[in-house]
Amino acid sequence: MPNTVITESPAEFSELLSGDMVDIYVGPKRKHWRLPQLLLYNTSSYFRKAFEGGFKEAEEKELYLAEDNAAGFEIFVQWMYRGALKGVSTYANFEYEQSMSSNVALYHLANKLCIKSLQNSAIERIVETLKVGKQGAMEPSTVLGIYQNTGSDSNLRKLSVDLAAYHYMSTPSIDIEHYQCCINGAEGFMIAMMKAIKANPDKHDPLKNWKQAMRNYQYHIAVDKVEKAGK
């Protein structure tokens, strides 16, 4: 839960909704949101730096996030206002590929904004997407995108590799060429996958007890009880 809704009184949260509004444009199609500046400040210091850094964003009250994904940002806005996200399984119009791409984008955005609790929520939604979609692993193209946009310490990268390793071990019809795009385009992927295979001799399904794995910080990031994102 973001600290935007952890306040001592409703009046304090109302104050975050008052004051100046700013315009944020996301993605190549420049999808537009008009949002309370104070609410954004309280969510991540990224926005404070952008709008108070002496650049044109501060003068024009506009921010263009060209490299970010509009669907991921839309989920972020819901989280920022509500303090929580609906489960993927509750959506009547659930669509696997759209859910996967938007929640992976949410993870990358949360990483950019340094909001660890939202990164954890994004990983939970990615796992839920796999389970609702009855998929045992992410598509190789999704794994490649994760590898190209995360560091070696990323919990999402670890999850994607562990799932790929299990998928390869447990599915006779899958050979290593299934992940050829990752081998060619993601430096270190093959080594990481071989390590994951070696570390899982019993062919344990990473999704089987995923909630316990999250609690053990296998795929979660440890965060403070109240994340001081806006400081």
Please write the string of helix (H) and strand (E) elements.
HEEHHHEHHHHHHHH
Task: Give the C-alpha Rg.
Answer: 19 Å
Task: Name the beta content range.
Answer: 5-15%
Q: Assign the structural class, choosing from mainly alpha, mainly beta, alpha/beta, alpha+beta, or little secondary structure.
A: mainly alpha
The main sheet orders its strands as 2-1-3
What would you say about this model in short?
With about 230 residues, this protein is mainly alpha-helical.
Structure description:
There is one protein chain. The protein is built from twelve helices and three strands. The chain is mainly alpha-helical. Strand 1 and strand 2 form a beta hairpin. Helix 5 (70-82) crosses helix 6 (96-112), helix 6 runs antiparallel to helix 7 (116-132) and helix 9 (155-170) packs across helix 11 (189-198). The longest helix is centred in the middle third of the chain and has 17 residues, at 96-112. The two termini are 16 Å apart.
Features:
disordered N terminus; 52% helix; elongated; three-stranded mixed beta sheet; 231 residues
Structural topology:
Layout: H1 10-16, E1 21-26, E2 31-36, H2 37-43, H3 45-51, H4 56-60, E3 62-65, H5 70-82, H6 96-112, H7 116-132, H8 140-148, H9 155-170, H10 180-185, H11 189-198, H12 210-215
Parallel strand pairs: 1-3
Antiparallel strand pairs: 1-2
